[in-house]
Amino acid sequence: MATPGPVTPEASLEPSKAPVIEGFSPTLYSKPERFKEKFIRKVRENPMVPIGCLATATALGYGLYCFHKGHSRRSQLMMRTRIAAQGFTIAAILVGLAVTSMKSRP
Fold first, then answer.
1. Model-wide pTM > 0.70
2. Which bin fits 51, alpha (ψ -120 to 50), beta or left (φ > 0)?
3. pLDDT digits (tens, 9 = 90+) for 7-58
4. SS (HEC) of 18-59
């Protein structure tokens, strides 16, 4: 069996420098965003995701409240509503991803 020859990398790898990837820029914006700015931008891009998250949290909270008070039928209904709200949130995320990928195509 033949022994493989030495492998020579085409570009030197320096741990102190980030690798250069063709067609990729690490920041699309000229200045780094703060959390609040990024949150507002993301909500404007896909407003259904925060609505779904809020609906999920509301159904969970009210369901737990009803469970604590002993209203088992209402609690079960709220847990089923929570599952529906989670499904809505996942669907909103997937639709947002599809729309974003379609926008980025030339």
1. no
2. alpha
3. 555 555 677 776 677 766 666 556 778 899 988 988 888 889 999 999 999 9
4. CCCCCCCCCCCCCCCCCHHHHHHHHHHHCCHHHHHHHHHHHH
Closest by alpha carbon to 49, among 88, 104, 99?
A: 88
Indicate the helix (H) or strand (E) that contains 71: none
Instruction: Tell me the residue type at 104.
Output: S
Tokens of 18: 């980030």
CA distances from 15 to 3, 5, 30, 66 (A): 29, 25, 25, 55
Please say whether the beta carbons of 90 and 56 come within 8 A.
no
* Structure tokens that stand for 6 in this block: 């030495």
